[in-house]
């Protein structure tokens, strides 16, 4: 545990104070707020959904009661007719002629208020019989009129003597009648005192059931369905002139209640309304929510912001002056404020600045002047070295020899002297230490041509320069120095013919200079010594006795590239050498 706490403390030390304060605010205020308020909202929403579930259950019970009551009204009318012996005898009597039928009709029904006694405003009653002596019309008809009707077929297929049927009338006559119909059908077989089949059809007004459902005024959508079709709803789908719609809203169903009436299965669906829960919650808790936001977020944020300004602004001022320590003089902090620890630290810093600035005057500035003198002395040593390796009089002497050779028609000698003069001119002109690649390659070619006069067929060379590298600049005599080493220490020391390859190309945003030879090579110890000299080339190494050409070239490369040049040396005894220098393109 102690180890963990140390790691955590070390981890927190890397954060700015401003970030630490905001982390404290988020962890100790925002996260607990989110968790607690999340639980509050969850329980509120959960309770609202439970309440909504109870409401949907109550709605389903009320709708079932209303719907069942409407069907039972029709069933009551049918039961009265079913048990009425006068109607049964009237439908079962065989009449001699139509006049006899009319007389019997008046006789049996003169004291019966048929419409008021057996019917209601929202239902129509009609009876059918296969008694051919009955005159069809009004509330009576022949059985042949209904044998193809859906409700009659369903009654015949049912094991019970009565059923209820929702249907869409496909007939076109009459055009003004509603197409959606509700039929309560019952067989009139209570007495069975005659051979005739008698059937009763009680038609319930579809629109009146729709109105009753809509008048219940429920916000939630309610659907009464059967066999996957919407029979009744309080939200559209109730056009009497259109076929019943398919119910395809099962994903939104919040409550379902099944019921069976007279052999027909019905489903009552109540659709859930999630927006109602959210709106009810928002309407119930606006003051609470605003108060929580104000107390738990805004006020702590303002307090943390104030602490943050008090701490970080003054610490930033301290940080700014500390960043200026690299200057010759330290900077004082003006306008020190606050009596806390940070204010005391700023005042103590000003005291330290006063004392340290006086020391800087005597120590630091004097040291800087000493360093400047040392740099000047080393530059003078470097210029002296230049003068040592570039004797001006030798160039004049070579020019005189070349002219005498031409006069004597010794042209090969004159050509050799001219190439040697080109080399000496390059050594002499030190006004600018940088030269373009193509110029340096001209010096390399001149030097190699001079060496071919000496070695003949023993020396062959190849110069390869990418076109994009020709105008880049490098320190003068860089390539010539390493080519000279390849000739003197490689080709000259080997009895067999050899090659020297000089390549200049770009790779990985760097300019690559390669000098390779197939000469004598080096032992591993000699290679390691050469690597050390190239990597650590310095003015002090130039003061040592011995060959300094390689050190001189590497030192100037390091000075030109701010020590960013990379050296690679590889070789094997008897096989040759490879020297590669990689310079970042921003330095060329």
Low-confidence stretches: none
Strand arrangement within the widest β-sheet reads 2-1-5-4-3
**Major sheet: size, sense and barrel closure?**
5 strands, mixed
**What distance lies between the first and last C-alpha atoms, to the nearest angstrom?**
56 Å
Describe the structure.
- The chain is built from 17 helices and 17 strands.
- With 588 residues, the chain is an alpha+beta fold.
- The protein has 3 domains: 16-284, no CATH class; 285-373, no CATH class; 432-587, 2-Layer Sandwich (Heat Shock Protein 90), CATH 3.30.565.10.
- It has a 5-stranded mixed beta sheet with strand order 2-1-5-4-3, with helices on both faces. A 5-stranded antiparallel beta sheet has the order 8-7-6-10-9, with helices on one face. A 5-stranded mixed beta sheet has the order 12-14-15-17-16, with helices on one face.
- Strand 6 and strand 7 (229-233) form a beta hairpin.
- The longest helix has 66 residues, at 17-82.
- It starts with a helix and ends with a strand.
- The model has no long low-confidence stretch (mean pLDDT 80).
List its salient traits:
588 residues; Heat Shock Protein 90; 5-stranded mixed β-sheet; 17 strands; 18% strand
In short:
Helices cover 53% and strands 18% of the residues. The chain is α+β, with helices and mostly antiparallel strands.
Write the layout of secondary structure elements.
Blueprint: H1 2-13, H2 17-82, H3 85-92, H4 98-109, H5 114-118, E1 123-129, E2 140-142, H6 150-157, E3 162-168, E4 180-187, E5 198-204, H7 206-215, E6 222-226, E7 229-233, E8 245-246, E9 253-261, E10 264-271, H8 274-284, H9 286-323, H10 341-389, H11 392-407, H12 411-428, E11 434-436, H13 437-455, E12 459-465, E13 473-475, H14 478-491, E14 498-507, E15 510-517, H15 524-535, H16 539-542, H17 549-560, E16 566-572, E17 576-584
Parallel strand pairs: 1-2, 12-14
Antiparallel strand pairs: 1-5, 3-4, 4-5, 6-7, 6-10, 7-8, 9-10, 11-13, 14-15, 15-17, 16-17
Helix pairs in contact: 2-8, 2-9, 11-12, 12-13, 13-14, 14-17
